[in-house]
Amino acid sequence: MNKPLExxxxxxxxxxxxxxxxxxxIDELCACQVVELLHVTGATASxxxxxxLHAGIVESRKDGRWVYYRLxxxxxxxxxxxxxxxxxxxxxxxxxxxxxxxxxxxxxxxLCRRQRGEECCPNSFNKGK
Length: 129
What we know:
Arc Repressor Mutant, subunit A; three-stranded antiparallel β-sheet; 7 helices; about 10% strand; transcription regulation; Arsenic resistance transcriptional regulator ArsR1; Metal_resp_trans_reg; DNA-binding transcription factor activity
C-alpha cells in the first residue's frame, strides 16, 4: 500500500506534476532544464526531483556534471495515460510545452550560465582570454 501512496503524494504538488507532464513529452530533462521550466532555485528543483525519485516515478543518470531525469518504465502505463488525459485541459501546461521547446533547444551549459553565471560554466570562447 505504501507505493501507491508515495506516488500519489509525489504527484500532489503542482510543480512535480508539471515535471512529470514535461517528461511525458520529452524523453529526459537535465536538472538545469527542470530549474528553467519551474522557475525555481536549484535546491528547490532538487527537492522536487528527490521526491519523484523516492516515489519511483523518475530515475536519474549522471553524465559528467549533468544529472538527467526520465520517467521509469516500471510504472503501469495506465497511470501516465490517465494523467495525459486529465492534464489536457489544465491551464498553464500548454504554456509549459511551448516553454519546454525553447528550453530543450538550448544547451545545458548555456542554461547553467544563465542561471548561475559565467563562473559556473565558462564560455569556451572566453577561456583563453
